[in-house]
UniProtKB/TrEMBL annotation:
[4Fe-4S] cluster 2 binds at residues 189, 193, 196. NCBIfam families: miaB-methiolase, MiaB/RimO family radical SAM methylthiotransferase. Belongs to the methylthiotransferase family. MiaB subfamily. Its cofactor is [4Fe-4S] cluster. This is tRNA-2-methylthio-N(6)-dimethylallyladenosine synthase. Monomer.
Length: 471
């Protein structure tokens, strides 16, 4: 018989899933009903995908997945990229404690990026004693094993790894959408932008083997997926450290060949690594969506240097111009930080200049948040009251260009992937154009997951109202 310590990691975790199933079944007998579980995700697409992996295991071991946090098991998959995400977690933990007092069976787990920060762990140990399980980003693959520890031990279970070179394949995943899915192609980040905590909490860059990625996508397509999003902190440096190096553009070409797959998205691109090869591949692709997220962060070369972004304002503009020229229907979206240490009104003028010239289709604008341990935290900070005014100026400009950009498709017919019944009006469905713009139009649930042609009748700022037309 194979000893559990000698098994490969995937088999080991399936062994623990079996074992955890027994614990959950026993709990179910005690409760006289199936135990419930709720997974709440904070932050980015990476976290959303990680939560699907958690749900995959939870379903497999017998939990009923519900949306209500008044459940027998609640997991917060946390984010720490900006401090407001952390504050939300602390606030909501107070509410969970109230539920737990009424339900003594309740277990609370915390995982994700925030848990990789030692100060956070100290704070939880001291002030949130009612939390039962804490794990981090590097050991999420051993969730089944941790679940067993939770059932088999008294007191708080804490397991945080500093880093890992491990990538564990083939664990269960439960997708939120039947027709679209994120796929991790790499983990971690090597860039060390001076404001960013991600490299510290997600570790160094590790690319998945292209064969594993293709196999996973083929499996998803066989299961009804038509749109995928390749996920990585910096997808443009995918494959550089593999034993047999391959470029992101080459990977995209391999993915394109998968029959039955209709749309390919990816996130996020670092401007310094976006190659001409990638532009060529996007230009000739039938499946790669007309949407590129290209974080600018700042339009001032002085600030970009302090941020360690490794491109200048001019280099960014040149790249954006090249993309606009080669692929005119490509929507370009971005991230912008306002209030980075040392940023003046003149620096913000430069950012506004870039926004006007690139004409973003959409932009996420963030107020700089000081992250302990990052180089920028030690720099002289900009007073809060000065930041607000600059932030509003940037936001206003972004809204102007986005309106103008989005409206350029008015009256055209385009293909839309229907995602869901409209949240506010159940006679409508909501879908997404290749360039990521949302469209609402009359339809019913039978359309969800289908690609249909829609006439873009009325532009309402960031979205369209339309009607379906025969293809
Ligand atoms: N403060 C504000 N925004 C940040 N981002 C990353 N770190 C910080 C920070 N410390 C933003 C960047 C990045 C996006 C995911 O989050 O714009 O592109
Ligand atoms: Fe953070 Fe920069 Fe890496 Fe993005 S590229 S995750 S902003 S360090």
């Amino acid at each position: 018989m194979t000893n559990v310590t000698q098994m490969n990691e995937t088999d080991r975790q399936y062994y623990f899933m079996e074992k955890a199933s027994g614990h959950v079944a026993k709990l179910g007998e005690e409760l006289g009903r199936r135990p419930t579980c709720c997974v709440t995700t904070f932050g980015c697409q990476m976290n959303a995908r990680d939560s699907e992996k958690l749900v995959g295991i939870l379903e497999k071991v017998g939990y009923e997945i519900i949306e209500d946090e008044n459940a027998d098991f609640v997991i917060y998959n946390t984010c720490t990229v900006r401090d407001n995400a952390n504050q939300r977690v602390y606030g909501r933990l107070g509410v969970l404690n109230g539920y737990k007092r009424k339900n003594p069976h309740m277990k609370i787990a915390l995982c994700g990026c925030m848990m990789q920060e030692p100060t956070v762990i100290e704070k939880i140990k001291n002030s949130y004693r009612f939390v039962d399980l804490i794990f981090g980003t590097h050991n999420i693959f051993k969730f089944a094993e941790l679940l067993c520890s939770l059932f088999e031990n008294e007191g708080m279970v804490i397991d945080i790894w500093k880093d890992t070179d491990k990538i564990v394949e083939d664990l269960p995943v439960e997708r939120k959408y039947s027709f679209k899915s994120g796929i991790n192609i790499m983990f971690g980040c090597n860039n060390f932008c001076s404001y960013c905590i991600v490299p510290y909490v997600r570790g160094r860059e590790r690319s998945r083997n292209p064969k594993d990625i293709i196999r996973e996508i083929e499996g998803l397509v066989a299961d009804g997926v038509v749109e995928i999003m390749l996920l990585g902190q910096n997808v443009n440096s995918y494959g550089k450290n593999l034993e047999e190096p391959i470029t992101f553009a080459q990977l995209l070409q391999d993915v394109e060949r998968i029959k039955g797959l209709e749309r390919i998205r990816f996130m996020t691109s670092h401007p310094k690594d976006l190659s001409d090869e990638l532009i060529e591949v996007m230009k000739h692709s039938k499946k790669i969506c007309r949407h590129l997220h290209l974080p600018l962060q700042s339009g001032s070369t002085k600030i970009l240097t302090a941020m360690n972004r490794r491109y200048t304002k001019e280099q960014y503009l040149e790249l954006a111009e090249k993309i606009r020229k080669e692929i005119p229907d490509m929507a370009i979206t971005t991230d912008i930080i306002v209030g980075f240490p040392g940023e003046t009104k003149e620096d913000v003028d430069e950012t506004i200049d870039v926004i006007r010239r690139v004409k973003y289709d959409n932009a996420f604008t963030f107020i700089y948040s000081k992250r302990t341990g990052t180089p920028a935290a030690a720099m002289e900070q900009v007073p809060e009251e000065l930041v607000k005014e600059q932030f509003d100026r940037v936001l206003k400009t972004v809204q102007e260009t986005a309106r103008e950009q989005v409206s350029r498709y008015q009256g055209q017919i385009c293909d839309v992937l229907v995602e869901e019944i409209n949240e506010n009006d159940s006679s409508l469905v909501t879908g997404r154009m290749s360039n990521n713009t949302l469209v609402h139009f009359p339809g019913d649930i039978s359309l969800v997951g289908k690609l249909v042609n829609v006439s873009l009748d009325e532009c309402h700022g960031f979205y369209y109202m339309g009607h379906m037309v025969q293809s």
